[in-house]
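Hi team,

As requested, here is the filled-out complex form for the fe (ii) ion run. I kept the field names the same as last time so the parser does not choke. Let me know if anything looks off before we queue the next batch.

— J.
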Amino acid sequence: MLSDRMQEALNGQINAETYSSYLYLSMAAYLHSEGLSGCASWMRVQAREELVHAMKFFDFVNEQGGRVLLAAIEQPPSDWDSPRAVFEAVLAHEKKVTGLIGDLVELARQEDDQATGAFLEWFVAEQVEEEESAAGVLQKLQVSERSPEGLSEFDARMGQREFHAPS
Ligand SMILES: [Fe+2]
Ligand SMILES: [Fe+2]
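And here is what came back:
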């Protein structure tokens, strides 16, 4: 059984994860327009993963007998200064989401809600991976910028990422 505060916060996270998906889809569109089809493909995979995150929260609220209420999704930015700026924004966004998950963990503790606390553990671990992945991509992009062929090689490697439904 979810408290009203917990339910509202979990619904807020459904919105945040859906916005993440929308943001990454917008980044995919930008990268595509810049001719970086591999990076665009990587970002589309990222967008799909975020929708899976949203659905995990959706299912959990329902399983707990709560009520899912969907709010408007904010419009994401559509332009960035460079591909590098996109991946810097990914890392910054993931750090922000890590903070949101941390706030949910704290609220679950305050509400003495062990079920939600246990559910959130997956997301705590996932955010460690998300930040590591974003930082790793950014580092590879920075290295690739040092050689003339670097960016196209980087783009080709980025295009190899495949979608795997998170367990
Ligand atoms: Fe997420
Ligand atoms: Fe994420």
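Two things worth flagging: Residues 38 and 156 are 5 Å apart (CA to CA). The chain has a mean pLDDT of 97.

Thanks,
J.
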